[in-house]
Amino acid sequence: MEPGTYAVDPQPTGPPWRLWAEVGADVAARQGVYAPVYSVSFGARNRIVVAPGDSRSMLLILEKCEGYCQGVDGRAGPNLACERCGRVVATRMDDCGLWQTVWLEPDAVVCRPSGLPAGPPPDWDDVERAEHRVQPVEPDGSWSRRWEAAVGVALAHLVAATEDHPVTLPAGPVAELLGHAVVQFLPTGPAARSLELAGPGIPTPQPRPDVLLVPRHPLTGEPWRPPGDEGAVVPLDSGVWAYLAHQAETSPMPATGLLPDGVLRDDYALPQYPWYPLVPHRRAFADTLVGLPAVRGPGLRRFRSA
Fold first, then answer.
1. What's the CA gap between 11 and 64, in Å, rounded?
2. Which of 55, 259, 279, 285 has the greatest number of beta carbons closer than 10 A?
């Protein structure tokens, strides 16, 4: 989470957990899980996540600070209490392999204005701004963790939208950055579905391809759609989508004129690039796919293993 921002998860998250074999498919579906998994969350809905640096006046409950490696993973439930009254209010998570987050319990907190001036809410215009784009590579030369998660989520939607059929990707950044991931998760062969980028600032391809790769709204998370369009869309993190759709000059240095496509400046250190293809986050893929009702369809049978 960026400082000063928050998000709300409408689905149950965190403990208590119950085994899939114990609750059955119908109860699991009411919890938003449509394919067999090891365990199903019966935690609170509408939990609020913030950056740890934005939390205030809370103390760790030491006996609830279990973790797998060198941090806490929230396995024991909420582990932060109000410094003033002692009420359990949130869960800090920062173990290896986890996003560093604080999850506020919805029944333990209330929303109050800070008194600070609020900026305009983000809208579709934001995805066309250069600062909205998320670079795919970290400064140390590794793939962006946000990209890995976003591609995992998008691939789950792509598998569902195509009913596990092969997919042809458009030439350019989409094929270069996502091609390896698509080959990993989808079959190859004939009867491939076509996919193209679509969204604010770029014309919708005509004739319409089978699937449109579109941004999620930066505030609501809803996928963008062309007016009146009811065809298949695959939503993608708006910052990742913006990089694919509106790539900028490769140099971070000021320059006069424009560089030809694919040319890097030689007056600064060249950026590091990963030595391995972009691999989507498998947990993000799996958790998203089992939360889509389409996973129950006959074409996705191979993903429904207990």
1. 23
2. 285
How far is 33 from 41, CA to CA, in rounded Å? 9
pLDDT tens, position by position, 155-204: 999 999 999 999 999 999 999 999 999 998 999 888 899 999 999 988 88
| Its pTM surpasses 0.90 | no
DSSP 8-class letter at 60: E
Is residue 36 within 8 A of residue 305, CB to CB? The reply is yes
List b or e across 248-260, with b for residues whose CB sees 16 or more CB atoms inside 10 angstroms: eeeeeeeeeeeee
- Nearest-angstrom CA–CA distance, 214 and 241: 7
Instruction: Say if residues 91 and 78 touch (Cβ distance below 8 Å).
Output: yes
Q: What is the per-residue pLDDT across 221-253, written as a single tens digit (0 to 9) for each?
A: 999 999 999 999 999 999 999 999 987 644 444
State the greatest distance between any 2 C-alpha atoms of the chain, in Å, as a whole number. Answer: 66
